[in-house]
Amino acid sequence: MSEPALHHSVAAALDWWRLAGVEHDYADAPRGWLKDPAPAAAPPETRSAPAPQPAAAPPPAAAPVVMLGGPPAEWPADLAAFRAWWLAEPSLDGGRVAGRVPSRGEAGAELLVLVPQPEEEDEAAGQLLAGVQGRLVAAFARAAGLGESRLAVAALLPRHTPFADWDGLASAGLGALARHHIGLIAPQRVLALGGNVLSLLGHDPAQSPAHLALSGPEGRQLALLAGPDPAALLARPAARARLWRDWLDWTA
Predict the structure, then answer these.
(1) CA 219: distance to chain centroid?
(2) Per-residue pLDDT reduced to its tens digit, 167-194
(3) Any idea where the domains of the chain sit in the sequence?
(4) C-alpha dihedral, 235 to 102 to 219 to 108, nearest 10°
(5) Which tens digit of pLDDT belongs to each residue from 138-171?
(6) Are 166 and 196 in contact, with CB atoms under 8 Å apart?
(7) Is the domain 72-251 a CATH 3.40.470.10 member?
(8) Which of 11, 45, 185, 221 is most buried, judged by most C-beta within 10 A?
(9) Distance of alpha carbon 179 from alpha carbon 154, whole angstroms
């Protein structure tokens, strides 16, 4: 009897296992059919020492603040000398001296009107508050019964300066310079017009601005009344009326 062909033998074996109910091939040892083959071991990495980092550059030094007027001990102690110094001292305005105007009025004036800065017309006129703001102040003084001899006018800045850096000026000592100026005028009362004036004089914005006191020369307390700046008074009749009522209450 001849041997069956190989493919008949294989087919017969598969039929036998199929008739026995075996449809899959099993093995006792587990095998990870879905597991990726382990990667080949990489050669050991050769690490070089990190390159030295350059030292961080130090932050640039802040520019020193130039104090207005220089050391307070060198400020003139006489009103006439102070006004001449006010026109010529370079540090008051970054070296610029053109356009400056001094305060006006006698020492010991009954009322000092203190404003933030001169008007634009003041340079040509050579006098502080020579424009419409000055006319408003003069009308107020007449209504209060104060003639020119009883009134003094001063500004925080030596010349008309739109968009002045009030915070920077405060850091540079403008408040102390203003108090020195007021002390030389030595008025009986001070009318401070403008929020920047109050803040530079050391007023706390959380407190009411009416009926304040300002330390004058030799520790004397100066009565101070605050109001809006002259430009706001010109633009708002209600502000002028309010200031007049405050004045009447203050001087009653």
Answers:
(1) 31
(2) 999 999 999 999 999 999 999 999 999 9
(3) 72-251
(4) -90
(5) 999 999 999 888 999 999 999 999 999 999 999 9
(6) yes
(7) yes
(8) 185
(9) 11
Residues contacting 191, CB < 8 A, separation 6+: 111, 112, 113, 114, 224, 225, 226, 227, 247
pLDDT class of 24 with cuts at 50, 70, 90: low
Evaluate whether 230 touches 137 at the Cβ level (below 8 Å). Answer: yes
The model's confidence at residue 246, banded by pLDDT at 50, 70 and 90, is very high
| 111: three-class secondary structure by DSSP | strand
Distance, CA of 225 to CA of 198 (rounded, Å):
10
Helix/strand/coil for 221: strand
- Cβ 206 vs Cβ 212: under 8 Å: no
Q: Letter for the amino acid at 145?
A: G
Closest CA to 91 of 155, 175, 158, 154: 158
CB atoms within 10 A of CB 118: 29
- The reported pLDDT for the residue numbered 12 is 73
Give the integer Cα–Cα distance in Å for 217 and 195.
23
Helix 174-185 to helix 79-88 angle, to the nearest 10 degrees?
140
